[in-house]
Amino acid sequence: MRVFVTGASGWIGSAVVDDLLAGGHEVTGLARSDASAAAVEAKGARVRRGDLDDLDGIRAGAADADAVIHLANKHDFANQAVSNAAERGAVQAIGETLEGTGRPFLLASGIAALTQGRPATEDDASPFHGPDSPRGGSENLALEFAGKGVHPVSLRFSPTVHGTRDHGFIAVLSAIAREKGVSGYPGDGTNRWAAVHVADAARLVTLGLEKAPAGSRLHAVTEEGVPTREIAEAIGRAFDLPVASIAPDDVQDHYGWIGGFFAMDLAATSVQTRELLGWAPAGPTLIEDLDAGAYSVQ
Description:
Shape: globular
Oligomer: single chain
CATH architecture of the largest domain: 3-Layer(aba) Sandwich
Number of strands: 12
Distance between the termini: 35 Å
InterPro entries: Epimerase_deHydtase, NAD(P)-bd_dom_sf, NAD(P)-dependent_oxidoreduct
Structural class: alpha/beta
Radius of gyration: 19 Å
Strand order of the largest sheet: 3-2-1-4-5-6-10
CATH superfamily of the largest domain: NAD(P)-binding Rossmann-like Domain
Strand content: 15-25%
Protein name: SDR family oxidoreductase
Organism: Amycolatopsis heterodermiae
């Protein structure tokens, strides 16, 4: 299958490209810089130059492919409106291009705010609708294209997709701990984060492309919920730092933009996803990665 991948040189995207190529698929990756293009080409994939603002290029990439996997996001946490608008624009462009073709359209999403007080499941619909909502309401927008001759699938990634050289949320929390001289956790540290190793997440994406029915919500979750206190303790061990509670009123000042996320309970299950796809995660846990020095590697 000829697959067009946005975010192909990113943390998750790089692993997905590797897994797709290993499975015999042909991949074209969207790349916005020379370095990104070189990284995609080095894997044996083709390159389409462009970014999320190049909607004509995204449409052309989608039109030339048998399937689209949309993983790119601006992740501008200082200006969420910009990220949300770009995400919605890209999803709209891809969906409209694929209308009437029956082709798969997989897009990255998340589990934040799906539920309160219990782990999220694949049955929980996203509450986000419209351009002003988180991620521009992109999951619901994409799933609406199921009624327009598209085969959409939502890829709900854990808040931490971990592994060596991860530069995501755990790397940010580790950097803050080193800067502050203490590895903190919000309040009593009982709120939880779901987790998945990057290789397991990539395998899920390929299986989702090959097997998931239209309209599916897939959970890239290996660990249902790791308490934030355990995460902080592992970061403390990794960098030989003391561990301490951060009072709820001080969380935003201590962590900055990531404080709101770290204080959330982001637990989720993947029972349905495993049964549907035969997905059998085998990678290390988040704490095992931290204890093995995955976040000490530059």
